[in-house]
Amino acid sequence: MGVSWTAWAADQLPQPSVPPAKGGAPVPDAAPAPPGGATPEPTPAPDAAGDAAAAEPPPPPPPPEATSATLPMEGGPKDRPLTKDFPQKGAMVLQSVRPPILETPFEVFDKGYVTPNDRFYVAWHSGAIPTTVDPSAFRLSVHGNVRRPVSLSLAEIRSLPKVEVTAIDQAPGNSRGMFQPRVPGVQWGNGGMGNAKWTGVRLKDILDKAGIMPGTVQVRFKGAEKSSNPGVPPYMKSLDLAHATNGEVIVAFAMNGAPLPVLNGFPLKLVVPGWYGCYWVQMLNDIELLSAPDTNYWMVSADVVPATARGDVQPGDTGYATRPVGRMVPRSFITNVKVGEQLAPGQPALVRGIAMGGDTGVARVEFSSDGGKSWTTARLDKDTGKYSFRRWQAQFTPKAGSVTLMSRCTNTNGVSQSRDANWNPAGIMRDGIEAVQITVGDDGPAAEQ
Asked: DSSP letter at 334?
């Protein structure tokens, strides 16, 4: 039996819960029978107080679920539909149906440092991805500049020493919708990212099964995703050999303690901590060792930035050299206050957020409530790994008027977010400080304590 969009193989992996039919409610479990088959005791009649309580009107129905999300972009369109129509996913911001591209609603990031599997963003490069995977027939091929080509089953891969890393998977174009002037491509808000505990095996241990031949310079990865454009090769990405064998790159078969969702790469996903998600090849089934640098389209033409420190050029610039996007840069976000929100003046307000150090850990986060004129050091929550989100919080007492909130991350290499965002025609590797504009007035809500 195979794994499809809607079901797991019962003999290989645990079955997921089945959501209720659209518009319906879950069927409750039957009440357990009493021990020994005895007749259950009748429910006692309510007393007078119970009668009075029963006579109270029922609580009002919950508000209807949101059907759209507003992304914090300058210019329009800002609204995107929310969908629950994709398998193993809850409510997600719909960016594209084919290929499937789903954004994590930003409020999810305020609930914890790990992003739940059913709210984890989805990004594919073509619509030609398998909808069924048979775990028993699956093989991972390792070939090229090796001593002995191998074809590994999932059981053989799982027999290798198991490792776990908590790391951020972020689309290189995350926040593309905020680039000014605007650029083509998926108009992501800030939800093209997620953080998970990835379980798998070291890539190095898999490569050792085949034996690395002298002269190998790069390792290329390909998944089951096919090209839907005759002029473009299947999606492939490469890492330098030293990076591929450093022990940090893993081949994951689980995230957050559960099998990978199909839309997040089941059965295997390459995890490259500290690097953009374009290298995190999904449905990984082919590894090739190369004796020359990879010049395929996806390395030299797609996902490239100007060969400057920040991948930054001025709009209209031409003739500059480019390089493949690679290491992530520091970023931070405010998660519990939205653009346009109103607060009451004179009451202490708590601001929460998340930060990432990019290719290393978070050293500090600073907070500003005056548009960057002054900064205070935020309090960091526990460190869950240098490639993980680091939660932070700060307090301020708002004054009436228009207020601009900002946060700034500095990583353990001493690299800080730039005051102004970079720009490039691909709309990738955004690194600037994000601003949250709010209004403080007498009719604002009570501040969170």
From this structure: E
Number of DSSP helices (H) and strands (E) in the chain, helices first: 5, 28
Q: Residue-wise over 278-309: b if at least 16 C-beta within 10 A, else e?
A: bbbbbbbbbbbbbeeebebebbeebbbbbeee
Which amino acid is present at 298?
A: W
Q: What is the DSSP letter of 33?
A: P
Q: Using CB atoms within 10 Å of the CB of residue 62, give its burial: 0 to 12 exposed, 13 to 18 middle, 19+ buried.
A: exposed
Q: Residue 134 burial (CB < 10 Å; 0-12/13-18/19+)? A: middle
How many angstroms separate the Cα of 148 from the Cα of each of 139, 211, 217, 288? Answer: 16, 7, 17, 12
Alpha-carbon gap, residue 214 to 241, rounded angstroms: 11
User: In the structure encoding, which two tokens stand for residue 381, read together?
Assistant: 């929550």
Q: Tokens representing 80?
A: 């995107």
DSSP 260-306: PPGGGTTT-EEE-TTB-GGGS-BSEEEEEEESS---SHHHHTSSEEE
**Cα dihedral angle (187, 430, 104, 389), rounded to 10 degrees?**
180
What's the number of CA atoms in the CB half-sphere (13 Å) around residue 269? 27
Q: Which DSSP symbol is given to 418?
A: B
Contact predicate 54/46, CB 8 Å: yes
Task: List beta partners, residue 305.
Answer: 323
Spatial neighbors of 291 by CB under 8 A, at least 6 apart, are 144, 145, 213, 215, 216, 217
Helix, strand, coil % over all residues of the chain, rounded to 5: 10, 30, 55
Return d(Cα 205, Cα 162) in angstroms, integer: 10
pTM of the model: 0.86
Hunting for tokens 């960057």 — which residue is that? 372
CA-wise closest residue to 423 among 413, 431, 415 = 431
Helix (H) or strand (E) holding 407, with range, is strand 401-411
d(CA 140, CA 223): 10
Q: Provide the 3-class DSSP secondary structure of residue 142.
A: strand
> How many angstroms separate the CA atoms of 268 and 154, rounded?
9
Cβ count within 10 A of residue 24: 8
Residue 398 identity (one-letter amino acid): P
Q: What are the per-10-residue average pLDDT scores of the chain (449 residues)?
A: 39 32 34 39 49 69 87 88 97 96 98 98 93 94 98 98 98 97 96 98 98 98 91 94 98 98 98 98 98 97 95 96 97 96 94 98 98 98 98 96 97 97 97 96 53
Whole-number Å distance between alpha carbons of 359 and 238: 17
Residue 267, phi then psi, degrees to nearest 5? -95, -15
In the block, residue with structure tokens 């994951």: 252
Cα–Cα dist 99/14, whole Å: 27
Residue 47: both structure tokens together = 């007393």
